Amino acid sequence: MKTSDFDYHLPPELIAQTPMEPRDHSRLMVLHRDKSSIEHRRFFEIVDLLNPGDVLVLNESRVIPARLIGQRGSGGKVEVLLLRRLEPCLWEALVRPSKRIGAGEKIKLTGKEQKPASSTTSVGIEVLERGEQGLRTIRFADEAVLEELGETPLPPYIHSSLGDPERYQTVYARANGSVAAPTAGLHFTPHLLQRLKVKGVRLVFVTLHVGLDSFRPIRVEDLTQHRMHSEYGELGDEAAAELASARARGNRVICVGTTAVRLLEQAAVASGEAEAVEPFQGATSLFILPGHRFRLADGLITNFHLPRSTLLMLISAFAGKELIDRAYQEAIRLRYRFYSFGDAMLVL
User: Fold this and answer.
1) What is the dihedral of CA 250, 256, 261, 266, to 10 degrees?
2) What are the structural domains, with CATH classification, of the chain?
3) Residue 197 CA from chain centroid, whole number
């Protein structure tokens, strides 16, 4: 398959710039794969679509203040976007302007107001290694500056400022590590989660720290040449046992977001057994395209994704490309809101 097979035209005004209030009042498009049918709901009605004993898999990764502003020794402005923590004080990052900043460069962090950190805080970053497409390996003198000077990074297609940074976090976010929110989870409220539990839906929490591939476009036409960057994920003992129990009972496993799908499918691949559900901890770089045989995921909650993205390819693999193409045309016709702060889709 080709990258251009997953292209479509989206009117710019359909890109949601602000989150829905309240969270669970976004629109919900429901796709039924067995009937190739589409229906339209509100997100809070998801309680009516799930059954007692079903399991919701939620990614509890939390977005870190990963965007940093600084100055070069020459005085030029630098923007650093942290991607992945390699070890204490050592990170993989995107640095701009990328062409000018090489190994050995030292950057003084200032924050967006161009004010240096307090005199008691070390503000130095050193670039250790230069990679491709703006990637750098950097070392902090002191990681404490993240909380003081770092900002929550928003996707480049969101041009409105966010008054409350918590609106770009899920209400259950706990494990620091993502540079972008697992946005399918943004629709849940504490009250909605409680309603689901009262109905008998089981909640399982996993972790996958969202990284580079959530916002970097695919640059090749031949998809066999695309390399997914690895992200860290954890499927714990308790979560694995709950999923295994659901499968034994014949209940459905509904993944909240493409990140949860990729983690479960990576865990299944790592187990080496067709239907095994085993704990997993480590890197995931699974690239899911149409033709993939899903082992653990029976349903998926997701948002509407960018053209030519790995996320759109994954949901096309899960729901069928023909049904997804029709659903996206319908969403555009009915003026659904797209991308991170947009409306939701439930695939059953």
Assistant:
1) -90
2) 3-63+162-347 (3.40.1780.10), 67-149 (2.40.10.240)
3) 24
In terms of Cβ atoms closer than 10 Å to its own Cβ (0-12, 13-18, 19+), residue 137 is middle
CA 117 to the chain's CA centroid: 30
Q: Which amino acid appears at position 40 of this protein?
A: H
Q: Give the integer Cα–Cα distance in Å for 150 and 305.
A: 27
Q: Left if phi > 0, otherwise alpha if psi is -120 to 50, otherwise beta: which for 324?
A: alpha
Give the H or E element holding residue 16. none
Tokens at 200, concatenated: 């008998």
Q: CB 274: neighbour CB atoms within 10 A? A: 8
- DSSP state at residue 224: G
Which stretches of the chain are DSSP H helices? 145-149, 190-199, 237-249, 258-271, 310-319, 321-333
pLDDT at position 254 over 80: yes
CA angle 89, 90, 94 (to 5 degrees): 120
pLDDT band of 274, cuts 50, 70, 90: low
| pLDDT over 60 at 148, yes or no | yes
27 Cβ contact list (under 8 Å, min separation 6): 40, 41, 42, 43, 336, 337, 343, 344
Distance in angstroms (rounded) separating the CA atoms of residues 69 and 111 = 5
pLDDT tier at 114, thresholds 50, 70, 90: low
348 or 228, higher pLDDT = 348
Give the list of residues 6+ apart from residue 73 with CB closer than 8 angstroms, or none. Answer: 105, 106, 108
Query: 169 forms bridges with which residues in the sheet?
Result: none
- pLDDT value, residue 113: 56
Tokens of 171: 């209400």
Q: How many residues does the chain have?
A: 348
CB 208 within 8 A of CB 232: yes
The verdict on pTM exceeding 0.85 is yes
